[in-house]
Amino acid sequence: MISLETAVRKILKNVKVIGSEVVPIENSLGRVLGEGIYAKENIPSFNRAAMDGYAVRCWDTVDATEYDPVILEVIGTLAAGYNTKSIVTREKAIRIMTGAPMPHGANSVVMLEDTGSIKRTTKEFVKVLRPVKRGENVSFSGEDVKKGELILYRGKCLRPADIGMLAALGIKSVQVAKKPRVDIISTGDEVVEATQKRLKKGQIRDSNSYALYSLVLACGGEPIRLGIARDRKEDLVHLLEASEGSDIVLLSGGVSVGSYDIVKDVLISDFGVKMLFWKVAIRPGKPIFCGIKNHRLFFGLPGYPVSSIVTFELFVKPTIEHMLYKWDRDEEYVSAILEQEVEKKERRNFLRGFLYFRNDRYYVMPVGIQKSSALSSMVIANSLIDIPEGKGSINKGKIVRVKRIT
Ligand code: AMP
Ligand code: MG
Predict the structure, then answer these.
(1) Residue ranges for the chain with pLDDT beneath 50
(2) Domain range enclosing 385
(3) Do 237 and 297 have their domain in common?
(4) Which residue ranges have their beta carbon within 6 Å of ligand 1?
């Protein structure tokens, strides 16, 4: 059986990066940037006051002290958004507000807090109580962003600050990766619509397609639920045909070795899918199938609710992120202190865990019923504890690898 890492590499080698589309920046949150953004101008585009105070020539303030202030003549006032033709010459100052452009002649700003006012009848003066250095309290053109600089790189997942930056640069719409279309098919004669009120003995509601739908959304894909296929070839082929045009197809159930587990065979024999792998050395999720046809990927996820979610996290999420050309993935694994002894199994085991941060450390506690049928464990869990295969157990207090989940 192949390892998780080998399997994921196999998929990623076969994934084609998806095309892009242009969206207004208001709608770009969480989308993956499809182009590098270079600054077409400086930010700020002019030298400006960084504080409320007085624009001065720094040389005029060198001797200023609290007890022996320098007195400068105030020749005007300048608010943010305005400009002045007045020039600050020797022993003159202009009262200036944060954000206002620096007047000619001045090279620094004395903070209001470092001044005192003087009342005289005709002219106005200011007492400067402290010297300012050249450039002090001035924010210079290009200080934040320099013209020509690469500001946002391709593959960056856009965050609020990025969108603010786009606006600051005067960019109203951006190229982002298209959302891959991910079609979802549930399988199983026992599986009925979630809307069905009363269940007959033997029936279960289709929870997988809703969990998978939400996972796809959270990963930046465009999910479509195609419905439930009965465990019959014609039924499955019918829904597979309906998936035409999608980038990824997720099937759940029917990939194990039971008599009615037909998904793999139908995909290969009746639908022309080329197998990439079947079965991976992990639990839950061992029987996962993955195949490809015309650059479209087909995942046969195991039917148990926990298995389908776990395999989505481990295999499908990286696939979608790769398609999106997403670079800044979450640092998904953390090291944490195990809060309870865990038995190792013959296969690498992803236990449902609850990860938390206390006293500067991460701790993780196995939670819920550790059975792949128990969706309730997934409801409590916020992570998967990666327990390597082997004999014996891992003691409480040991460091384990933990993967956060969506
Ligand atoms: P299978 O892999 O088809 O044998 O399914 C394994 C288990 O998962 C069975 O108990 C199924 O009833 C259950 N199962 C399969 N599909 C779904 C689904 N869409 N929602 C919830 N449980 C499912
Ligand atoms: Mg089944």
Answers:
(1) none
(2) 333-404
(3) yes
(4) 186, 188, 190-191, 204, 206-209, 252-254, 256, 258, 302-305
